[in-house]
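Write out this protein's structure.
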Amino acid sequence: MYGKERSGGYGRPRNDGPREMHDVTCSDCGAQTQVPFKPTEGRPVYCRDCFQKHKPKDRF
């Protein structure tokens, strides 16, 4: 593992600076927003408010 970039756990890279943000339109309300991942074509992307509405309920 020496010489390679180590991850911060759970397969995610360490926080080495600002994330690249991507401009998107919310699939629910149509608002312009930004997300820290490259959206996958054909999958919905939500703004912060709409994401909370679509977030799975706790199982407990």
